[in-house]
């Protein structure tokens, strides 16, 4: 017997206008987060031109953490309740530290286009984690479209790199797992706390280790600051770690983890575009066809996903 989700077509369910407006706003916010994230790998590649991988990661977290502390203190935001700290720790370990560190280590030996493989798989793992952790139901069409989109992205990204598995791939697959958990927990928290507070408190949790870690890394690794390295690190702090995560978690809080994660199917293709424009990598001629296929899959998942959760904040 089919579940109720798959038995009723989404088009037959009347959705109130305020709910449609809220879902549209959530989709736009999550999409802005994807655009910001698509610049993360090129930004990391630029930062690595003048800094070591541990310096890039620790400085990125420490600087963003200091900004978070300033904002939270200036606005006199109260401490989260005790039940929020466990999920916040998962967000901190997965999104604030784990994913940036593992992908930065991967980019020492992998190209930007090859690293895009991980974000091609991330929507599936994020949706799977959210479905398991929060008991979310999705239709078979939703999962089929997600799988097709992920396969297209992976095949395209792997074709760019020749498909060879390297040490960097180990870091990328590990990053995939920890980030899915961080997104899943953060998306749930964003239904109870403003998105910027979710990432803000996660950054605060990491600051006691990130600040001394940055000093240690900067004295242990070579430092050759260039315009690229400064701009790259600046983007990682302001664009990815702050702005990108804030709008992303807010978007997930509105439309749900599964639906928001499917928007990331477009992220590898955007990353490959930035890789051409900013890093100088060559773009495969199949890119336009892959982009159209992925966008079609996103459209299907947006129409067949579960209903958006009620927004508390």
List keywords for this structure.
disordered N terminus; 313 residues; globular; disordered C terminus
> Spans of 5+ residues with little confidence (pLDDT < 50)?
1-15, 307-313
Q: Biggest β-sheet: count, sense, barrel?
A: none
Percent of residues in helices: over 70%
Q: Tell me the count of domains.
A: 1
* Rg calculated over all Cα atoms: 19 Å
User: What kind of assembly state do the chains in view correspond to?
Assistant: single chain
Q: Give the N-to-C terminal Cα separation.
A: 36 Å
Q: Number of helix segments?
A: 13
What structural category arises from helix and sheet content? Answer: mainly alpha
Average of pLDDT? 83
In sequence order, what are the helices and strands, one letter per element?
Answer: HHHHHHHHHHHHH
Overall number of strands? 0
Question: Could you tell me the strand content as a percent range?
Answer: under 5%
Overall geometric form? globular
Q: How would you describe the overall organization of this protein?
A:
This protein has 13 helices and no strands. It has 313 residues and is mostly helical. It has one domain. It is globular, with a radius of gyration of 19 Å. The chain starts with a helix and ends in a 9-residue tail after the last helix. Mean pLDDT is 83; it is low at 1-15 and 307-313.
Write the layout of secondary structure elements.
Layout lengths: L3 H4 L9 H22 L1 H8 L5 H22 L7 H25 L5 H23 L5 H22 L5 H23 L5 H26 L6 H29 L1 H6 L4 H13 L7 H18 L9
